[in-house]
Amino acid sequence: MEPVITVQHLRKTFGATVAVQDVSLTVGRGEIVGVLGPNGAGKTTTVEIVAGLTPPDAGRVEILGHDPQRDPAAVRQLVGIQLQESRLPARIRVEEALRLYASFYPDPADVDELITLLGLEDKRRTAFDDLSGGQQQRLSIALALVGRPQVVVLDELTTGLDPRGRRETWALVERVRDSGVTVLLVTHFMDEAEHLCDRVVVIDSGRVVAEGTTAELTAADAEPSLRLRLPVGAPAGLEDLLRSLPEVSAVVGDDGALRIRGDRRVLPAVVAALDERGVVPAELSTLTRSLEDVFVDVTGSNLEEAAA
Ligand SMILES: Nc1ncnc2c1ncn2[C@@H]1O[C@H](COP(=O)(O)OP(=O)(O)OP(=O)(O)O)[C@@H](O)[C@H]1O
Fold first, then answer.
1. Atom 23, ligand 1: which residue's CA is nearest?
2. Topology relative to the membrane, per the entry (predicted)?
3. pLDDT mean across residues, the chain
4. Strand 32-36 to strand 182-187: parallel, antiparallel, or no bridges (unpaired)?
5. φ and ψ at 285, to 5 degrees?
6. pTM (two decimals)
């Protein structure tokens, strides 16, 4: 896939604080890549460097062959950015803000089309401060799109939105991606990353600690595991029997059931061993690792805390 964004070994300090220690990532055309990590991990600093708003101390950024520091004018044309809690003047109206931003670009998007795309038709003449949180968020995405960017950078896109607002915003970002725009987004939310991102880069303390598709991250190094409840009156010794199977690596009790880990043949092996003895499980399910589990493993914190 053609890389649109290439970031190599970024480093950025603010006085004694190392905000970004060593971050490398690439984003291909038409991908949605999520930057995920706990508070203070260096996510915002990273995307601000990518967008050319902050110079790095070391490392390289290229956006379609342009360095944001050496070629800021080209990068401004290529990248649209929606920053965390972007504020506009309280009384500026939706359409007015879009027309103002459009005037900064030689070949802006059609403002009326953007208003329709973002579902803001009824709000054209509404002042920024009178919009709901979701509408403000949609306007800030529209402003990021008004220069017809090839890349959009979205920071904490759905923070503060209700579930419906979040779903609508996700659908919107998917439409933007489907129109060929490459999306780099910062998020705290696992479900957002799972739902929306083609790939995820997990950052902790200024470093990339994991990277891949959600499926790759949740599959990596994870032993498949099962939860099994034996029927009432099952013959004694079944637990030891299961433990002795070559496909099984561990059996532990779990609230009256058993949690069984093993290789990728663990499920058929367990079912066959029980079947040979005429035992039908009262309950059997496979357990999969979630992105949240991966996040806890690699960063040692959980996202609820991270988002607090
Ligand atoms: N302009 C600045 N001056 C001083 N320190 C800064 C500045 N910007 C960021 N930092 C520090 O750099 C570190 C990384 O901040 P950054 O905002 O990139 O993290 P983040 O992962 O986006 O966090 P959050 O999820 O809380 O927004 C933090 O310790 C932060 O306090």
1. 40
2. Peripheral membrane protein
3. 88
4. parallel
5. -140, 155
6. 0.77
Nearby residues of 80 by Cβ (< 8 Å), 6 or more positions away: 143, 144, 145, 146, 147, 149, 151, 152, 153
| Global ipTM | 0.95
Find the angle CA(245)-CA(247)-CA(250) to the nearest 5 degrees: 75
129, 90 contact by CB (below 8 A): yes
- The strand pair at 79-82 and 151-155 is best described as parallel
Distances in Å between the alpha carbon of 69 and those of 48, 76, 259?
Answer: 12, 11, 54
Ligand 1 centroid to Cα of residue 13, in Å, is 10
CA angle 198, 82, 214 (to 5 degrees): 15
**308: confidence class by pLDDT, cuts 50, 70, 90:** very low
For ligand 1, mutation pick of 20, 23, 43 (most atoms within 8 Å of CB): 43
| Position 80 pLDDT exceeds 80 | yes
Stretch 120-140: mean pLDDT, rounded?
90
54 Cα nearest atom in ligand 1: 1
pLDDT: which is higher, 2 or 181: 181
Q: Which residues line ligand 1 (CB under 6 A)?
A: 14, 17, 19, 37, 39-45
The whole-number pLDDT of residue 228 equals: 93
pLDDT at residue 22 greater than cutoff 50: yes
